[in-house]
Specification:
With 774 residues, this protein is α+β, with helices and mostly antiparallel strands. The protein has 3 domains: 4-447, no CATH class; 456-593, no CATH class; 598-772, Jelly Rolls, CATH 2.60.120. It contains 25 helices and 23 strands. A hairpin with a 7-residue loop joins strand 4 and strand 5. Pfam families: DUF6311. Residues 16-423 form the DUF6311 domain.
Length: 774
Amino acid sequence: MTTRRNHWVGLAATALAAVLYVASLFPNVLRDPDNYLYNDAGDGLKTYFVSAYYVKYDTGHRFTGMNYPVGEHVNYPDMQPIITGVLGLINRHVYPISEHTIGIMNVLLLLSMMLTPVILYAILRRLRLPVAYAVLAALLIGFLAPQHGRIDGHMTLSFTPFVPLLWYCIIRMLAAPRRALWYVLFGAACVMMGMVTPYYTAVGAFFLLAHVLVLAWQQPRRTPAERRAYWGLLGRLVFTALAPLVVFRIWLWATDPTPDRPINPYGFFEYIASFTSVFIPVEPPLHEPFKQLLGFEEPVWEGWAYVGLASTLVLLLTLIRVVRYALRRRGRLVLRPALPQPLRVGLWAALLLLLLAMCYPFKLPGLRPLADVFPPLRQFRSLGRFAWPFYYVFTAYAAYTLYLVFRAVRRRSRRPALAYALLAPVLALWAVEANWHMHFKADEVEQRATGRLFTADAGNYTELLTWGNRKPRDFQALLPLPYYTLGTDVFQLDGSGDAVSQSYRASLNTGLPLLTVFLARASVGQTMDLIQLLSSPLLPKALIPKFPSRKPLLLLVAPGPISAAEQRLIDLSHKITSNGSITLYELPLAALEATSIAREQARADSLLPHLRAVNGVYSSTGRSVVLEQFNGRPAPHARLQPGAFYEPADKFSQLYSGPTPAAADTGQYEVSVWVNAKMWHGVGNMQVKVYRGDELVEHKVQGASQSTELDGDWARVAVPFRIRAGATRLEVLYESRELVADDLLIRPLNTDVYYYITTPDKKRQLIKNGYRLR
């Protein structure tokens, strides 16, 4: 009875200490949570916006605040759908809380910090550690957790209790193999956590599957009946691991009809963990001294799972012990160390996940293509996050090992104080690092008292519109400039920080959805329709017929560089009002959807009779041009006529290599080509090289991800360059994987190029500079 009472006293002490410590770090946030933003830019601000918008305006599984008029599935904007869904129900049916969404999110994250040491205490007690020591170790492990570093970025990844909770469920499953409760709790937790971010579901499922592999490998000698029972246990564990993944996949299949989300998102081989990101300090003040001392490369931020110097010391002690066992031919103790089962199995399971987090085996020579065999795994492009279970298991192992050392010294030494003298500095170092880690973000958060500026009605965009005698209901959607879009892994327009933050603020205040996307795995086709609003008047806007009304668009122009395409939209608009840094415009749909095709066709009709065709190509100035249509070449897609350039390999493809269009011409030229943007491996970049003999005299590069000239599935990539005096040769290269390119054109910038093609219905169609004149 005394032992049980001490256990609960320790649990209460852990909870109280965690509450007091977090409260001391975030006093102002707890005092006024609505007035603080953990991050006022980037992914952090996006999470605040999408969550608050959903609670205020949306229901069901659709988020309408972006990707107008289609909207988005709730699992992709980082809006923590299980949390915002509950808040939305409360807001609509119980009590209006939409103005407090940000404050509630802030408090929930702080509560998760407080809860994590409590779960870790329960785990450490399962390792048979003494109550007082388990309390201290749980606090140290909980507050050094790498996920705290995400609080001002990917807030959905900052819920630190989730991974320890899943590990605790696994421990209880193995301790009571026939008790269904812990299987059900694990599966339910995995599914619910996936409705915060799918990474938690994957981490939990993979961690349990890793336990199954270790248990199958370490199966002890048993009778046939015992072996059958053992394999029955492993079968139940496999089912428990896979069921949440299947349930989550069925949920997406039933509720998300979008067919063209990215299947090969960037980062699988880049956002990974490493030895330095796990065992060497990654944050100030120790990071720079260790980096200078050891000379290691900067670890990838996505792979941070730093276990602390105390745990690194335990790693060194463990390696020494492993060498001793190997020399004494006691390898069995290396493979199956004499540890409590949660650590004996958990260490190997966590190590398997750490190897995955380091991108093994996929980054081994010759095995890179193996990643394409597992498309669902490629969706988890930040493999470094799978190192989190290793953090918790290894730090628990470190705490256990330090206690064993302490106990051994105390028993064998004539001076018990020596044991305390050895343990105290190590734990003190651990505590100092944990405190630095928590203060690293907390000090920044406490300075960001800008929450009410983001959400308040007073002084916001509804009020600003009244200055121009307008109301939000006069418009159907909001278009921010400089324009930004992110999430397809094909196109990325950065816009400006002000454009992003102010458009979020305006959308949340007015209820007007955004004509852009800034989320994970956005539809490529839908994003291309949005970007095409910036295309030239030679391209009809495919999105406008999909708008539900003819109301104008509200154009929000923020500080930042404005491109020629964006300036054209401003020129088509009528100024409403300005507050100094932000200007609002009304953009009529009629002005946006008007094209110059009829005018260009009329100009061509008057010009072509007076021009001479060279190989079927007309040049408005008579200067030489190069046109390569790749007609008849086998390719999975073609743009205007059958045939296109196709290269499936990831390489530099040579689209043109030959003489310059005119030997004596030293003017400004442009190379343009159309690439298919739906080949699932990005759109790469085009490079132009100009040579004088063998000497490279000009080299220009242009990425296609910033293109705004979009025609159906095709994006136009253009590179301006100068042909220098004496230049004789020109080379056009395109770096991409699975490249489909068509209609390459090299022309002087002051020259228009016309040619005819034959459409599938046997009609002639005139093309100007690669654009169809309908």
